[in-house]
Amino acid sequence: MARAATVAALLLLPGVGAQPAAGELVNPCLNATFEALPFCDATLAIDLRAADAVSRMTIPEKIDALDTKTGPIASLGLPAYNWWSEASSGVMGSRPATTKFAYPVTTAMSFNRTLWRATGAAIGRERARS
């Protein structure tokens, strides 16, 4: 359930019917359909926001979100996403010695944008060296 809540908190289509580029992460709370919902209310505690997002998902959506290839989550307006491309186990095609980063779901649950950027920058530098 935590993975689904993280997905819900981080990814939503930028507009009704809009399609993000492959692998593009978008802000869930910029979509007029969802911006007034509790999971977009930054004044609420994170656990309340996550619980709200998960409560909106159907059982099949929750089950599907447990795989590395998460299909669209219509109840939250989320596009499909392939978590395998997250580089936590090294960048695919990279040299054998790669840094092992925390899984995206655990990094995302920190709700620490500085940590996200630092991790992404380290992955980018590692990829550039390969």
UniProtKB/TrEMBL annotation:
Keyword Cell inner membrane: no
Protein name as it appears in the record: Glycosyl hydrolase
Record's signal peptide: 1-18
Species for this entry: Aureococcus anophagefferens (Harmful bloom alga)
Family per record: Belongs to the glycosyl hydrolase 3 family.
Keyword Signal: yes
One MF term in the entry's GO annotations: hydrolase activity
UniProt keywords, alphabetically: Hydrolase, Signal
InterPro entries assigned: BXL, GH, Glyco_hydro_3_N_sf
